[in-house]
Write a structure and sequence with these properties.
By secondary structure, the protein is an alpha+beta fold. The protein has a domain of about 55 residues: 2-Layer Sandwich (Beta-Lactamase). The chain is about 40% helix and about 30% strand. It has 3 helices and 3 strands; from the N terminus they run αβββαα.
């Protein structure tokens, strides 16, 4: 992570806000996983920051499900080809693209 990102996290948490972000992280074995990270400051009764609490939630299954739903919305489950709605959208795009890039001189 770039140092600017760390500075942003520190500034956000020290200002009393909660910092949240989804990112791809690595396990000790090198495997990638999606994580939702939350960091916040814990304050004493006097209002001083005493420590920070960080929570890392593994959201890999949720992200995989989202990816599958996106594919299912555009593809026929039997053939894995674009469904009619997506085919018509792609056809319109490529027809417009060909009109703009066809030399009619």
């Amino acid at each position: 992570m770039p140092s600017e990102k760390y500075e942003n996290i520190i500034h956000t948490v020290l200002s009393g806000k909660i910092w949240r972000m989804e990112l791809v992280n690595n396990r000790k074995n090198g495997e990638h996983f999606y994580a939702y990270i939350t960091i916040s400051a814990v304050r004493s009764d006097g209002g001083d920051i005493t420590h920070f609490v960080g929570i890392i939630e593994d959201i890999t299954e949720r992200k995989r499900t989202e990816e599958r739903l996106i594919i299912m919305a555009d593809h026929d489950p039997l053939t894995n080809l674009y469904n009619r709605r997506r085919f018509q959208k792609e056809l319109a795009y490529w027809l417009e693209h060909s009109k703009r890039h066809t030399d009619v001189s």
